[in-house]
Structures are given as structure tokens and as C-alpha cells.
Design a protein that fits this description.
The structure holds two protein chains of two kinds. By secondary structure, chain A is α/β, with parallel strands linked by helices. In chain A, about 30% of the residues lie in helices and about 25% in strands. Chain A folds into two domains: about 30-80 and about 185-255 and about 345-419, FAD/NAD(P)-binding domain (3-Layer(bba) Sandwich), CATH 3.50.50; about 115-180 and about 255-345, D-Amino Acid Oxidase, subunit A, domain 2 (D-Amino Acid Oxidase, Chain A, domain 2), CATH 3.30.9.10. Chain A is globular and about 65 Å long. Classes of the chains: A alpha/beta, B mainly beta.
Chain lengths: ~425, ~90
């Protein structure tokens, strides 16, 4: 019987809800493991889960500096999509989409995956042509995409200003119907429970302070809870990759850390029934099941490890929202926060063995890490278990920059804050 | 965040354009040292702490500035013209 089911709910309701087990244990770290995963966020937890489930490697520890899911997995705007132009990205994110579509069943944990679609708005004829090209590229690889006329967009999102007098009139859009949102905390908790039940030790409040080495080889980590040895040490610390790599003596990476802000409004009745993106700036919005509008915009634009942003971006994001939805101008904001983004030089992630022997690297998620959570862990687990990449993550190497094999979906070049 | 421009004094960050890591060294244009070019284009120090970076006062005097800023607190420690010369200390 599944741990969570209608039957178990009923049984526990009748017995006073006293018999639920904690979703994961709080073990003390052992002296050694087969694999240590640094980072108890979405990617680290899904990596541990798939190591156990797909590869039978259960002697695994996930080390988390704070509490579980305190980083970016709880700080994103929960959008899930696979609407990329370049085939390397499309294949990877579509694999992720397929894992999302069965994730609640696989984890026996409701991640509230809601395929409400993702609509990119076009505001110029050239942009609409560009979207047609991207839509065709997606469909060519078996991903769903359709161009939407203004009439259909108006019916789908009645609150949107599609009048010709808008500052940036809407000319159409590219819709991915299978895209949507998921409840981000549930993703972390579901993966944590799934990994824990298979024997993985999830160790919170355990900050890595250095690496144990035998020559070049990484043989473990020193932490605030003592030294822990492992045959393989895997990093899934996007946002803090620079900081952790410096502990390993690697001072330079093709990554900058930037802060990205997100916002949530007071609860409203249903008004935005999809994930909507603005094409004349950087703005995206969806509505949570509680009714809050969840939205965000651009990076603050300078290197930061602060997990908080500054007011100019707040102003910019709000003005973009009001440009699209004049009727929301008086909606009150409930919260804003910041998360750290590993911005790579081409806007694509890194999932690879190395750069040191015994080390495995998962980083560079820019601000697209949440939707990648299942495939990131799945591919990273494959890479750790087999010491070679799966074909889905084979393009996402660390040395692609030096080999001329960049995967630059937006064509921005080596200016990380623009990706 | 306020940045103290050596010409214009303390100004809001929205007047400035960020140009990134100021530690990078551009090879001579005729250089064929691929490692040096790769390092210049792709490698970043990205410290959690004091960061040496280049900003342009694009909404003001348009001077390029060398700014030392803490990436954890966002405190500006010093600003100077990128080509040297006048330097101001700032605790803004």
C-alpha cells in the first residue's frame, strides 16, 4: 500500500492522526558513504532519489547547510516548461517534462503539477516570426507548441490588455500547452521522503567547510558536523557554486552569481489561468492555487550572494505587470524575496563528472533550475553512477566554453546577466 | 545602492551600467594564446565578499569606474576611474 492514499488518510483520521511517520529521518552523519551529495535543494534531493531508485546506490548522504529546501527550490516562481530553441536544451527539458508528468505518482506525493500552459507574448512581427521558428523547432523534436492569435489570447486571459493602444500591443504568442506550475516545497519534500525511504541519509544543518583530498582526488568533505568520507562527492549547490568550488581550490569558473527577485500578491479570485511571459521586457506571471499572483522579472544585474535585491528592479517588475494588466494596478504585494542564480556564460547548465577526480558537478542553472529538477537529478545520478554522462546531459560539460561548443539559447554571448 | 562617482558624487545605482568582473585581463589583440583568451572571455572569480568590478556611469558623466563592492552586503568600499587617477573612499 502506498504510504499516502485515501485509505491511509481515512485510517489516520480515525486514529487521531498520531501514527504518521516523519517524512524523513534526522540521522547523524556516518563516517563514510558511497556518495555524498552537497546541497539539500531540489536538485540534490532528486539526485539522491534517482541514485537509489534507478541505480540501487543507497549508501548516500545529502548534506544541507540550512534546513531542507531553504534555497532556490523554495524561492522560484514554480514554472515548468520545455519551450527551448536549441535541440540540446529541448531534449533535456522535455525529458524533465515527462518526469514531471508522472512525478506525483512516482513519489506518491502530490506535487500539484498543473499543466495550465505557458504563453510567451509577442509584440512585434519579427518576434512573432521568431516564436514561429522556435515553435517549429520544438515540434520537430516532438514537443507541443502552438502559435496563438490575439483573439485566442484575449479569451484565455481576459484581464490582459490586448488593445492596440497598449504601450506594447500584443500581436500573438507562442503557447506550450503541457507547461505549467508545480508546488515547489512539495517537490523538495517528496524527493526527500522518497530518498529517505530508500535509505539515503538527509543531514540538515551540516555545512561543508572544506574538501578531503588524496593528491588531486576528492575523498570526502569536512563539515560543521565532522569529517565524512566518500568515494564520490557530488555538488548540487547552484547559487553558491563559486563559494563551494573555492573550498576545493578552484578559483575561476564560467559562472557569476546573481540575485533574482520574486514577488507574490494578496490572494485574488482566478484571473491568470496560465503562465504568461511579457515579450518586451523580462516578466512572467502565474497565479497560485491560493490565489496569489506569483511573478518576477529580471536579475538585479550585478554579482551578488545576498539573497535579497534592491528597489529599482521592484519598480521595473511592477511597471511591467501594470503595462500588461492595467486592472491589477491596485493589487497589494504580500511578499518579495531573492534567490541566488548561477549564471553561466551561455545560459545553459553544467552536469558533468569533474573537474577534479572524485568530484561531480551540477550547477549553472541560471534562472531555470526549478523546471529542470527531475531531469537534473536523473541525469546527475546517471553520471555519478556510471562515470559517464547520459545523452541528455552529455552536451552540458564544463569545458564546452573552451571547446567552442556553447549552448546559447538566447544568443547573448558571454554576458551572464543577460541570459 | 549608492555609488560615489569621482566626478558626480553619490548617485543611485540605476544611473550605472554593470560591466562585470574587473579582474580579467584582455590579451593583446594580436595574441594567439587561446588559454589567455578563454580565461578573459569565460572565467570569472565570482567571490563571495569583496569584488573588484567595472561600472559605467552611463546615466551621468559616462566615465568607466573601478568599484570594489562586497557581494554579500552590497557595501561599496571604493570607487575610482577605471584608468586610474582620482579615487574616492565610500561607505554608502
Amino acid at each position: 500500500m502506498a504510504e499516502y492514499s485515501a485509505f491511509s488518510l481515512l485510517k489516520n483520521a480515525l486514529t487521531g492522526n498520531k501514527d504518521w511517520k516523519p517524512a524523513w529521518r534526522k540521522p547523524d552523519p556516518k563516517a563514510s558513504y558511497d556518495v555524498i551529495v552537497i546541497g539539500g535543494g531540489g536538485h540534490g534531493l532528486s539526485t539522491a532519489y534517482y541514485l537509489a531508485k534507478e541505480h540501487g546506490i543507497t549508501n548516500v548522504a545529502v548534506l544541507e547547510k540550512g534546513w531542507l529546501g531553504s534555497g532556490n527550490v523554495g524561492r522560484n516562481t514554480t514554472a515548468v516548461r520545455s519551450n527551448y530553441l536549441l535541440p540540446q536544451n529541448t531534449r533535456f527539458y522535455e525529458h524533465s517534462m515527462k518526469l514531471w508528468e508522472n512525478l506525483s505518482h512516482d513519489l506518491n506525493y502530490n506535487v500539484m503539477f498543473s499543466q495550465r500552459g505557458c504563453l510567451n507574448l509577442a509584440h512585434t512581427p519579427a518576434q512573432l516570426d521568431d516564436y514561429a521558428r522556435r515553435g517549429n523547432a520544438m515540434r520537430h523534436l516532438g514537443v507541443d507548441a502552438e502559435l496563438m492569435s490575439v483573439d485566442r489570447i484575449k479569451r484565455l486571459v481576459p484581464a490582459l490588455d490586448v488593445s492596440g493602444s497598449a504601450r506594447f500591443p500584443v500581436l500573438g504568442g507562442l503557447m506550450q500547452p503541457r507547461a505549467g506550475t508545480a508546488r515547489h516545497d512539495a517537490v523538495a519534500w517528496g524527493y526527500a521522503r522518497g530518498a529517505d525511504r530508500r535509505g539515503v541519509d538527509i543531514i540538515e544543518n551540516c555545512e561543508v567547510t572544506g574538501f578531503l583530498r588524496d593528491g588531486d582526488r576528492i575523498t570526502g568533505v569536512s563539515t560543521t558536523r565532522g569529517e565524512i568520507r566518500a568515494k564520490k562527492v557530488a555538488l548540487a549547490v547552484a547559487g553558491s557554486t563559486g563559494r563551494v568550488m573555492q573550498l576545493a581550490g578552484i578559483s575561476h569558473m564560467p559562472i557569476e552569481s546573481h540575485v533574482l527577485q520574486a514577488f507574490v500578491s494578496e490572494s485574488l479570485k482566478p484571473v491568470v489561468d496560465t503562465v504568461l511571459t511579457f515579450g518586451m521586457g523580462h516578466f512572467y506571471i502565474s497565479q497560485s492555487d491560493k490565489g496569489g499572483l506569483v511573478f518576477g522579472g529580471d536579475l538585479d544585474g550585478y554579482n551578488s550572494y545576498a539573497q535579497r535585491g534592491s528597489l529599482p528592479i521592484v519598480d521595473e517588475v511592477m511597471s511591467e505587470m501594470v503595462a500588461l494588466f492595467p486592472g491589477l494596478a491596485r493589487v497589494r504585494m504580500l511578499r518579495s524575496w531573492g534567490g541566488l542564480c548561477d549564471m553561466t556564460m551561455d545560459g545553459s547548465p553544467i552536469i558533468a563528472a569533474g573537474p577534479l577526480p572524485g568530484m561531480y558537478l551540477n550547477c549553472g542553472w541560471c534562472y531555470g533550475g526549478f523546471k529542470a529538477t527531475p531531469a537534473s537529478g536523473w541525469c546527475f545520478a546517471y553520471t555519478i553512477a556510471k562515470d559517464e554522462p547520459h545523452e541528455f546531459n552529455a552536451p552540458f560539460t564544463l569545458d564546452r566554453f573552451y571547446r567552442g561548443l556553447v549552448i546559447d539559447d538566447k544568443g547573448q554571448g558571454a554576458t551572464p546577466r543577460l541570459h | 545602492m549608492l555609488i560615489t562617482c569621482p566626478y558626480c558624487g553619490p548617485r543611485d545605482v540605476i544611473e550605472f551600467t554593470y560591466q562585470g568582473d574587473g579582474n580579467r585581463e584582455r590579451p593583446q589583440p594580436a595574441s594567439q594564446d587561446l588559454d589567455a583568451w578563454n580565461a578573459y572571455v569565460y572565467d570569472r572569480l565570482n567571490p563571495a565578499g569583496d569584488h573588484n568590478e567595472i561600472w559605467q556611469h552611463s546615466g551621468g558623466c559616462r566615465a568607466h569606474l573601478r568599484v570594489v563592492r562586497n557581494t554579500i552586503t552590497h557595501e561599496i568600499l571604493s570607487t575610482a576611474f577605471a584608468r586610474g587617477g582620482h579615487k574616492t573612499e565610500s561607505r554608502s
